[in-house]
Amino acid sequence: MTAATALGWVTVCPLDRLDRDRGVAALVAGVQVAIFRTADGLYAIDNLDPVSGAYVLSRGIVGSRGEVPTVASPLHKQVYDLRTGDCLDLPGVSVARHQIRCHNGMVEVRLRQEG
Amino acid sequence: MTGGNVVVIGNGMVGQRFVDALRARDPQGLWRVTVLAEESRPAYDRVRLSAYFDGADEQDLNLHTAHDGVELRLGEPATGVDRDRRVVTTTTGEHPYDVLVFATGSYPFVPPVPGSDLAGVFVYRTLDDLAAIRRYAKDRRTGAVIGGGLLGLEAANALRLLGLTTSVVEFAPRLMPVQVDTAGGAMLRRYVEDLDVACHLGVATTALRSGADGAVAALELADGAVLDADLVVVAAGIRPRDELARAAGLDIGPRGGVLVDAACRSPDERIYAVGECAAVDGTCYGLVAPGYAMAEVVADRLVGGAATFPGADTATKLKLLGVDVASFGDAHGATPGCLDVTWTDPAARVYAKLVLSDDASTLLGGVLVGDAGAYPTLRASVGGPLPAAPLALLAGDDAVGATAGALPATAQVCSCNAVTRGDIDTAIADGCADVAALKACTRAGTSCGSCVPMLKQLLDAAGVVQSKALCEHFDVSRQELFDIVRVRGIRTFSRLIAEHGRGQGCDICKPVVASILASLGNGHILDGEQASLQDTNDHFLANLQRDGSYSVVPRIPGGEITPEKLIVIGEVARDFNLYTKITGGQRIDLFGARVDQLPQIWRRLVDAGFESGHAYGKALRTVKSCVGSTWCRYGVQDSVGLAVALELRYRGLRAPHKIKSAVSGCARECAEARSKDFGVIATETGWNLYVGGNGGFRPRHADLFATDLSTEALVTLIDRFLMYYIRTADRLQRTAAWIEAMDGGLDHLRAVIVDDSLGLCAELDAAMARHVVSYSDEWRDVLSDADRLRRFTSFVNAPEVPDPSITFVTERGQPVPVGGHASEAQGRQPVALGLPEVRR
Questions:
Q1: What is its EC number (chain B) (predicted)?
Q2: By CA distance, what is A109's nearest residue in B?
């Protein structure tokens, strides 16, 4: 589904453009990616909320459940594990996660292949 | 037999309960289940059917849970059962079974009187029946209900709410003859007649007469009376739906119903029956609790268990036309030698009767009318010793609270789900620490809910301190958190959670803390770390819609707006292609804005003199008004002027939940002030203040708090009311629930903010004064600040690309989200077209 070029690292923005504990959306090779910066690091998952079908996960509230870093869908509040994309409230529901890193002060994302 | 095909005929409450129970007991999925449903909608709560007329819809009443390995075939009624081939035929096919469960329920009995088939005659059984009644009631004036039992009185209330002058005709000499005795019936009749529902008791209906249009127009009674009735509801009892079973050659009970044994099994061992269609050892039951018990029995049998139907608890507690009525055990004193203890208070309109054994030591049953507070304890004590002296038991809640802990382990606490005191104690010992956990673990309190107060008492009796913790990150309640923040002067979430909580926070505690900080005046809500605490609505200062776009609501104080400003709203909507709708709060909502458009839209609005309407916040929304004495020939005060002043005073005030208000210029109450958190109604000499009203799923009229106030005194009371609410309410608790939960209720509130019983008033007044002087328009403050503005971007790496997922189609000349209506998208039946809203 994703083009071969999408599988490389794509520079998104400077690290200081990201607020702590708040997401932003980025467009990476046509895919909407939700990017988060927490005290522990950077996370990237699909921006598409699989429950509502709206592209809104980047606008959710970031937090933790136990030791798990989380984001809650702003529409219906289902909570997702930022590390894996798994929904913690609905068994079997998950969103794709993507690779993210900070390189020379710039945030870079690499889409993860399907499956 | 442990596995195969189960076919369930019927998807009513009991049929659904059977499926839930079987799935819970058969985690490996050895049984594949096919459910054949006659109705086009899945199982719904027929006990609460009348809530439809209070605004509840199909969704609210829905009971259906989807399970793996269960196929629900809606709108496919069974038409025959071939026991030799073991197949059920339906309107569209055949379904083979290894086990067949009849859950066909019952049908309403319509007495064979002439005219019972006329147009305008209805029964009261399904959502479709109620929808048809509501449609037909439009433009009719009179209604009658045949049958004064439980369902008949519910139907009478529905007709009354639909605006019909209503009568009830009951063949027995009293209302609810099955549940209450003569004296209880008399008390109930007084309540019912006070609601202008005429009662004709002890008389049969002999015919229904048609009018000129051929539809029903009147009822003829056996005593010669003729009652006008443009709409008639027949609620004269139910009969088991056993026609399929009869045709299949199964045995039928003496009064109908599929004859089954205590295992709910017919002589054909592959066939079971549950609920109202079953005649267990010959007896049919018309209540849901025995049906649930049968469903559990059959589910247990299918996985190899040996459960038997325990006999029925026919105890009933309900609120009919606002009156509490309860009946339990041997309510009519049928036990030989039994003694009655009765209590009648005509002034308080309370009637109670306890039926005791001949030595007065054992409670056998009872009837309560007007106040059923003692019901949970009494019902649980049936068959055992009295937990207290009879009159103490009848005296009210306090006595009950003291005695719940004294119940024996065998006492049934929840009769809907057959949960005993012993079961509850075991669950508590296993770690259930609050009512929610007890509900999940034992199912107690999940059906009618009347035992919930007892669950709390049993937790108390077991010494469990019920958690007030906000969430996993804070062990304290919102009120305690508010005090911590206020007293210690904490200004950041990170300090608060480091010193008084744990973890990183969540979507529960972060917005609570954001709201507390905002209530205490902590600068702009998007400044610094505060921004990360805000819910998306507050974060973008707009209301998130289901497609990811936002709506915009400029403030229109009191609903008063100049033509120039109206034109600006129209121009902005046109230029940004926004859908516009007038809200219930007398303002205009603009839908379909993308995040990147919000600052451009607001630039135009702010330049034209608009400011944020805080529709996105847990904050003051609107102060609605009627036109008042300025124009109205009935108005006695300037309601618009006061509404504008109040809205400007409290705009931007953040609170535990949204706050709505209204001002009416005379007692006709056109602004609907009594449905608001605080409502003001003009009198000849001043203003009356009402508090604690709301609309929503459980509408509640506000209570009169103070009368004939000067404007200055009124404002002072509202200041204190709001500030005390903000300080002490729970998260997402509207003022109505806040007052109800308060020890001492309205009287306590009056003592605090009128008589200053806690010495808080000066502090509350000062807090509101600070709010008023520090108010600043949030949107104007965003537009002047580049750092705040940068949040309003579509994509951090492509701000010039609008979100491609937000697209519109045109409906009735306006843009709406692609993807159709939510109900269709989820594969449900389309909802009925908007009918006139019914109001009390």
A1: 1.8.7.1
A2: B797
